[in-house]
Amino acid sequence: MPRSFEPYRKKHFSPSFYKLYQPVVRILPETPVLESRGDRPLQMTFEDELKALIFFHLEEHNSGRHLIQVFKEDDFARKNIAPEDGIEKSSFFEAINTRGLEQLEFVFQKLSCEASNILPDQHPELGELVAFDGSLIDAVLSMTWADYRKGSKKAKVHIGFDLNRSIPRKIFLTDGNGAERPFVNKILSPGQTGVGDRGYQKHALFDSLQAEGKSFVIRIKASTTKTLIKEHKLNPGSIVFYDAEVLLGTVENNNQTENSVRLVGYRVDGVDYWVATDRRDLTAEQIAKIYKLRWQIENFFAWWKRHLRVYHLIARSEYWLMVQILGGLITYLLLAIYCYTNHKEPVSIKRVRQLRIQIQNELRDSDSSTDPFFSKNINGIGYMQEPNRTLLMINSYLEN
Questions:
Q1: Which of 76, 99, 149, 160 could be 170's S-S partner, Cβ–Cβ 3.0 to 4.6 Å?
Q2: Could you tell me if 386 and 376 are in contact, meaning their C-beta atoms sit under 8 angstroms apart?
Q3: How far apart are CA 190 and CA 212, in angstroms?
Q4: Rounded CA separation 257/275 (Å)
Q5: Predicted local confidence at residue 49, as pLDDT
């Protein structure tokens, strides 16, 4: 989208982009105010920062410099995404490295709640399921805070993922060596069922979760010592070959569970799975189904990295990395709401590409438009000068 010679004669507005962005507009009035830390006014408002992050992930920009260049040379980005008076590289990186994290965390939590209310529950009979897992982010040696191993720097993102609706709900960031188990209690709420792989096996954790009213379905090592308390009846022809009440670990090694757990063993494609749980209200086959659903978080990480460039770093501080990750999560939630609202489908790259193409087509169509709403008026004041320009544009185009 080249820069026009008479930018104010074109509206350069995409209704599709603002359909995607609309849920944020409802949240912004409640968002904590981003204030300047000194006498100098902000070069970027929080809405400017949020739009920039969404635009960065949606359009697959290669770097922060790429994004700044687009702000200057692309009509749509300059008039709808960038700060009203434009922004230079130094001011942009200063802003995103030091401001906006509190506001982004607020928007993410609000938006995840809204998405949870909009998206259908795919597994109501299984209860509220939350997968937890960590994913490493390649860092550079100058990111000294991101300890991993000699000659290598990595950060790790820990996510709580709603398996009923396939959306992220909670996020934490550590260095690459950050342990994953301590985040289970932070991610899970009472009444929820946490789903994890063998990396989360810790018998003391199983006891504490039961004491706190938090359920779990966690795969354990086949070699784990099991003390049988009671066997449950198996269904003929089922994939389940073991279902019993047991104690895990041993007294001698000081790692035996204080409370018994239900242990389900099943076989799929020649692989045996051993899953510990406290969900005694479900069949063994349903427990196996719950653990299978855990792969959704693996698929999410892979899709998120590949198609939204979330781990394509544009800054090196721990603060900014969290800002960038939250921007990617918010973009994903917006896409999830958009895809379901408009297509009754989950997020897919097909629909994301379709949205990108639709935005481009709308901008091409706008090149021939001289809609007076988007032109300067006789006094030289255009919509860019209106205090609620985003809301004004959305109400104008999306009222119906």
A1: 160
A2: no
A3: 7
A4: 15
A5: 86
CB 45 within 8 A of CB 83: yes
Same domain, 205 and 288: yes
Structure tokens at 295: 């792969």
pLDDT, residue 313, reads: 67
HSE-up of residue 193 (Cα within 13 Å, Cβ side): 26
- pLDDT for 133 equals 94
Count of domains observed in the chain: 2
Q: What percent of the chain has pLDDT over 90?
A: 52
Q: Is 366 helix (H, G, I), strand (E, B) or coil?
A: helix
Asked if the structure places residue 181 within a domain, the reply is no
pLDDT digits (tens, 9 = 90+) for 154-182: 888 899 999 999 999 999 998 888 888 99
Given a contact cutoff of 8 angstroms between Cβ atoms, the answer to whether 115 and 76 are in contact is: no
Q: What is the pLDDT of residue 226?
A: 96
390 falls within a domain: yes
Amino acid at 373: F
Domain range for 208: 198-293
Could you report the per-residue pLDDT of 96-108, keeping only the tens digit for each? 777 889 999 999 9
- 372 secondary structure, DSSP code: G
| 323-341 b/e (C-beta count within 10 Å ≥ 16 → b) | bbbbbbbbbbbbbbbbbbe
Mean pLDDT of 271-292: 97
Instruction: Supply φ then ψ for residue 264, to 5 degrees.
Output: -115, 125
Residue whose tokens read 């104690």: 247
Residue 98 lies in a domain: yes
Residue 216, phi then psi, degrees to nearest 5: -155, 150
Q: Tell whether the model's pLDDT for residue 353 goes beyond 70.
A: yes
Give the DSSP per-residue string, 208-252: HHHHTT-EEEEE--TTS-EEEEEE-PPPTT-SEEEEEEEEES-TT
Q: How confident is the model at residue 314 (pLDDT cuts 50, 70, 90)?
A: low
Question: Would you say residue 285 lies in a domain?
Answer: yes
Residue 341 corresponds to which tokens in the numbers above?
């609202």
pLDDT at residue 366, as a whole number: 64
The count of C-alpha atoms lying within 13 angstroms of the C-alpha of 202, restricted to the half-sphere facing its C-beta, is 13
* Contact status, residue 245 vs residue 232, Cβ threshold 8 Å: yes
